[in-house]
Amino acid sequence: MSAQTLLSGGDKWYSYSGEVFGDVSAPATISMILIPNTGLRDSLMQIQPFYGAEIATGSGSQLGIIVKLDDVTVIRQQQMGGTLNYDRNEQTNLFVPRQSKIEIIRLNTSSNNTQISGVNVIGYYI
Asked: Which residue of 6, 52, 82, 94 could cross-link 116, Cys pair, CB 3.0 to 4.6 Å?
């Protein structure tokens, strides 16, 4: 799990989870990024999830992410279904008020819990 890191210019920050995957015992959700306090300035945050090739392509078996802002789910998305849609990773932008808690959680499915996924974020102070 990753936390917030300030860039040298002081006007941006980033965080990345690296590759996350499970095994047959993986839980329904895995925390990938946890930032307990985003700092003293508001941010525009870009969220870039990525997914490896799917193991199973059936309906409801796609991985996804949940984004929580101060423990409230503000984004819940799954990758697009079908064979090898790893090239359709979607970027999402989110306004983050100062001193907010951010958590990005991997939404697992039993069919694809060994599939690789992860998330990168960059925040621009505004």
From this structure: 52
Total residues belonging to the chain: 126
Q: What is the pLDDT of residues 33-67, one digit of tens each?
A: 999 999 899 999 999 998 887 776 666 667 889 99
Question: 30 CB contacts (<8 Å, ≥6 apart)?
Answer: 20, 22, 105, 106, 108
Amino acid in the structure at residue 23: D
Asked: is 5-125 a CATH 2.60.120 domain? The reply is: yes
**Closest alpha carbon to 105 in 56, 35, 41, 45:** 35
Q: Tokens representing 42?
A: 């508001």
How confident is the model over 101-125, as pLDDT tens digits? 999 998 887 777 778 889 999 999 9
In the structure encoding, which two tokens stand for residue 95, read together?
């306004």
C-alpha neighbours within 13 Å on the C-beta side of residue 1: 13
Q: Please tell me whether residue 105 adopts helix, strand or coil conformation.
A: strand
Q: Are 2 and 15 in contact (CB under 8 A)?
A: yes
